[in-house]
Each structure stands twice: as structure tokens, then as C-alpha cells.
């Protein structure tokens, strides 16, 4: 029989590393968090460079408002944020982030460095972080943020993700799979944020894997990322309801387009999320139009009163639920259904002319 072991309190850094591994499970999560930070900072251009699917290095550069020199000491501590001060703010929060956990988590499971410059600062500052705190770039050197050259905005470099979590590191063995996940999340955000130029490159390569320009429309971005075959068959959708307190806009493919693999770019209050209910609802409408076992492409942005969605969910909890979900999903179904009929009628009409 096993003997009873004494209960011991875990060391703080062990606790932090475990918690960090829950927030940041793979390179794509780190990218999503940092991408949202860049958007929160008002960036109009966001470029990402990755080495080895982000496992060796991922670097994200934005032209947003930057981080104050004075905040660079605490920016990577847990629960430090510029976006929330009281619990009540959660109900009206308009930024992606609010819990101040992302950078802290990354700094517990990787080597993290930041170069940032605000509009009023005469230069940029660079600092290195470990376990939430400033750390010297090399042993024996001072760890203060150091003045350096740089444009307004922020560049964050994450190296050797999970170097200190060997089990996690081993579980992520395919850099190409990790790269695909990074492409997927960045593609979604690039489509949703027309007005922001986005690029993704592999380190050392000149041609980007993904690229949108700040002046491009949502339709242009869908064409640039998902191809003109999809983009040529898009129908725009838009609807709102005061009683249910929601707004929806997006693009769906018409009945002439079908693919084996479904693509649903779903945003709720500007966060990329998953909803099995919405996916199933779309499939059931399209089932009347598309060949069996094929699907549509859809980009849907739902805006719901913040107090009707629980935003205080865990960062990795992608599946969301919200108030009046059934009614809203039904409205969405009706909208898509109506649009598909209308869209195809106008097409037949055009070809007959
Ligand atoms: P949160 O986004 O929840 O506030 P994070 O750990 O993601 O927490 O970021 C902590 C803080 O660091 C943010 O509140 C913000 O003030 C600052 N920050 C992070 N990334 C950027 C960025 N790219 N540009 C400007 N400020 C940033
Ligand atoms: Mg954040």
C-alpha cells in the first residue's frame, strides 16, 4: 500500500510556471495574446516573424502607442494591466486584454524581451524578462531597461518557448503544425481587422506567408488570405436587433461554393472564438443548398452587449456562450437563409440577362 506523503506548499515559481502553461499552451496562443495587445495599443501595422513554428523564436512588431519607460519594470508581472482598474469595468471593457496575464505567463515559460517607444519618448527602451521580472541580458550586466534606437511602437521577442517545461516542449514536436496554427489565428485576425496591415514571415525568408495592407477591405483580405475562389462568391450579411441587443455583420459564401473543410471565422466582441452551436446552425441552413458533406466559408462578427457575454473566462476557453444564445443563433440562421435565396436569385437573374 502507498504511504501517506506529507503535503508541501509548492514554490512560487513552480506555481507560476504551471499557471503559465495553462494560459500559453503553444506558440499560437502566445501570438494571439500578443496580437491582441498590439490591437489594444491601436496599431495599424503588425508584423510577425517566426523561427521553427514559433518554438525557437517568435517576434511581433507593432506601431501602436508603446509602453512607458516607467511601466517597463512591471509590464511582465502577473495581474498588471493598463486596461482595467475595478471589477465593474469588466462589464464595459472594450479591449481584448484585461487580466494582465499574457506577458507574465510567457515570461515564465520562455525568454522574453521588449523594445518599446512611446510618442513622447526621445528613444526606445529595451528590457529582458524572466519569471515576470526584469532580468539582465547577460549575467553580471544591469537589468534596467536600456535606451536604444527604435520607432514608435513595440517589438516583443519570445525565444525558446517551454525551454523549462520539457514535457510540454516534447508534446509540441511538429514546427509545421505549430506554424499552421499561427497562420490560422493570424488569418482570422487579419480578416477581422481590415484597416490594420498584417504580415507573417518565416525567419530569414523575404516573401511573407500572409500579408494584408492597411488600406484593404474585408473582402480584399479574404481574397488575399483565403483565395479569390472564395472571395468571388461572397455575400455580405448585416443585421441588428435592439431587443436581443446584438449586431451581426460578415460575409458568407453563396450556394455555388462548397468545400470539404468548413471555415468559420467567428468573432464575438472582436475576439476570435468557437461556437459549436453557430457552426451547426450554418451547416443546417447550407445543407439545403450544398452537396452532402460539403460546407460553406463564413466570416461572422457578432457584437453582443458586454454584460451579456462572460468575458471573464479563461484565456484559452475558446468556446463561448452568451445570453439569448438560442434566439440570436436562430436570427442568424434566418439571415443566412434569406441571403442565400436572395443571393442566388440575383445570380440567376444576372445570367439570364
Ligand atoms: P492585458 O492585455 O490583459 O492587460 P498583458 O499581459 O497582455 O495583459 O499585457 C500587460 C500590459 O502590457 C498591457 O495592459 C499593456 O499596458 C502593456 N502592453 C502589452 N503589449 C503591448 C503592446 N504591444 N503595446 C503597448 N502596450 C502593451
Ligand atoms: Mg493582453
UniProtKB/TrEMBL annotation:
Q: Where is this region: Disordered?
A: 128-152
Give the subcellular location. Nucleus
Span of domain DNA mismatch repair protein S5: 222-341
Annotated transmembrane regions: none
Name the family the entry cites.
Belongs to the DNA mismatch repair MutL/HexB family.
Q: This chain belongs to which protein, by name? A: DNA mismatch repair protein S5 domain-containing protein
User: What fragment of the whole protein does this chain represent?
Assistant: 1 to 353 of 891
Amino acid at each position: 500500500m502507498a504511504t501517506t506523503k506529507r503535503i508541501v506548499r509548492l514554490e512560487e515559481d513552480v506555481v507560476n510556471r504551471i499557471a503559465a502553461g495553462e494560459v500559453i499552451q503553444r506558440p499560437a496562443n502566445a501570438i494571439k495574446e500578443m496580437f491582441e495587445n498590439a490591437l489594444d495599443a491601436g496599431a495599424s501595422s503588425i508584423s510577425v516573424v517566426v523561427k521553427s513554428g514559433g518554438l525557437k523564436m517568435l517576434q511581433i512588431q507593432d506601431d501602436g502607442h508603446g509602453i512607458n519607460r516607467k511601466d517597463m519594470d512591471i509590464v511582465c508581472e502577473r495581474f498588471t494591466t493598463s486596461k482595467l482598474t475595478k471589477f465593474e469595468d469588466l462589464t464595459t471593457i472594450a479591449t481584448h486584454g484585461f487580466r494582465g496575464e499574457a506577458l507574465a505567463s510567457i515570461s515564465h515559460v520562455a525568454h522574453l524581451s521588449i523594445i518599446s517607444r512611446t510618442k513622447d519618448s526621445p528613444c526606445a527602451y529595451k528590457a529582458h524578462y524572466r519569471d515576470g521580472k526584469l532580468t539582465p541580458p547577460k549575467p553580471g550586466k544591469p537589468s534596467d531597461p536600456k535606451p536604444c534606437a527604435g520607432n514608435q511602437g513595440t517589438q516583443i521577442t519570445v525565444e525558446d518557448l517551454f525551454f523549462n517545461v520539457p514535457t510540454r516542449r516534447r508534446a509540441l514536436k511538429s514546427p509545421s503544425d505549430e506554424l499552421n496554427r499561427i497562420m490560422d489565428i493570424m488569418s482570422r485576425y487579419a480578416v477581422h481587422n481590415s484597416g490594420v496591415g498584417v504580415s507573417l514571415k518565416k525567419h530569414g525568408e523575404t516573401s511573407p506567408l500572409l500579408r494584408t495592407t492597411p488600406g484593404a477591405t474585408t473582402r480584399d483580405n479574404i481574397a488575399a488570405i483565403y483565395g479569390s475562389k472564395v472571395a468571388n462568391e461572397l455575400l455580405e450579411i448585416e443585421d441588428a436587433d435592439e431587443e436581443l441587443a446584438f449586431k451581426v455583420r460578415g460575409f458568407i459564401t453563396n450556394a455555388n461554393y462548397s468545400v470539404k473543410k468548413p471555415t468559420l471565422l467567428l468573432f464575438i466582441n472582436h475576439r476570435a472564438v468557437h461556437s459549436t452551436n453557430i457552426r451547426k446552425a450554418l451547416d443546417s441552413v447550407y445543407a439545403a443548398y450544398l452537396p452532402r458533406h460539403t460546407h460553406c466559408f463564413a466570416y461572422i462578427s457578432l457584437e453582443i452587449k458586454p454584460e451579456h457575454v462572460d468575458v471573464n473566462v479563461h484565456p484559452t476557453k475558446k468556446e463561448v456562450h452568451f445570453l439569448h444564445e438560442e434566439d440570436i443563433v436562430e436570427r442568424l440562421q434566418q439571415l443566412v437563409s434569406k441571403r442565400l435565396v436572395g443571393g442566388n436569385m440575383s445570380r440567376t437573374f444576372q445570367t439570364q440577362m
